[in-house]
Structure formats: structure tokens, C-alpha cells
Amino acid sequence: MKLLLIEDDLTIADLIQKGLEEAGFAVDSCHNGREGLSHALKGAYSAAIIDIMLPERDGLSIIEEMRAAGKETPVLILSAKQSVDDRIQGLQRGGDDYMIKPFSFGELLVRVQALIRRDQKHSPQTRLSIGPLEMDLLRQQVCRDGGQIELPAKEYALLLYMAENAGTALSKTSILEKVYGYNFDPQTNVVDVLVCRLRAKIDKGFGQQLIQTIRGVGYVLRSH
Q: Which residue among 122, 149, 164 closes a domain?
């Protein structure tokens, strides 16, 4: 899953980004309001963490513009402002949760995860994100680092199965049954060939290899 972080304090931003990435999220980090708004309107994010006091554009106006543009991304507001009125204003202007600085990263992580779970319960999943890889399930489009990747039906079906089970090693038997719809023939190498073709499109030319072989088990898709 990909998150958007808009925070101008570089020390805080680095701390949050590192912690979220260690928790398995991909993070786009912006340090001013103008850049943050651009990412918020153009990108697809599971949640956003937005500071209120930002250079060039304040956090609340970013959230208002997101909502006006139809962006329903769950937003966790960060702020040093502690009054009840400030918190009420943040939520009234489109925020979904509000945290006061200084804060515990552990609490921030739990709140972000809760926002994502709440959002997923209210809307069907239309996108999958695994690190730099993005899948638009409605259009059946695949992108890596912003570049679109064309996949034939079987390769897309394999990638979707692996993405839905990201981080879990999948056996060749389960892949064959899921993608091709028939039981495993121990003599066939059809799965190996299909994985090889998918790897050539998903991983070739990139430093980070997302499709990994687990010897004696099968294959896994993961971003770290």
C-alpha cells in the first residue's frame, strides 16, 4: 500500500517515513504544501498524513481541495495545535483523524492502519499497491514507478494472484490451479515459464526485484 506524507519538518518526516516503510508501506514524502497538493490530487493513496502548518500551502486547504476534487483518501492530520476547537476545525474541513505533536510513532501507525481498514470496509478495493507496483483493478492496468506495463491475460492473472497474496510464498501447484484452472502436472514447466515472462516485464531494469523465488516452495511477490 502507498501512503502520502506531507510534513515540512525533515527530522519528523524522515522518522515517519522510515517507520512506515519498515511496516511494509510505500511512502511518497513531500515537504511543502504546493508539492503535497499536487501528489494528493494526482496519486492513488491508501491514506495521507498531513501537517497543518506547511510552507506554500497549509494542510487544511490541501484537504479541502482534495475533497472538492472528489478525493476520498483517508487523512490523518498532524498538528502542534492542541485546542478542542482546532481539532474540530480539522475534522470539519475534511480530516478523518487528528494527532497532536509530539506523538508516538506506534500510535501514529495504529491510527493509519485503522483509517485504512475503515476505508476498505466502506468501499470495494479497486487498487493494489506493492512497493513501487500499482494495479488498477477496474481498468486492469499495471504501473511501476509511474510507467505503464502491458500484460497479456495470463500474466495479469498471475500478478493479481501474487499481489492479493503479497508476502506469502505461493506453490507452483496453487499458481497452476488459480491461473490455468487445472491440477498440477509434475512434469510441466508452464508456471516457471509464465513467471519468467512476468519477471521480464515487472522487474527487468529495476534495482529492486519484486518477484522472488523461494527454493522448494514456489514464488513470492514482496517489496522488501
A: 122
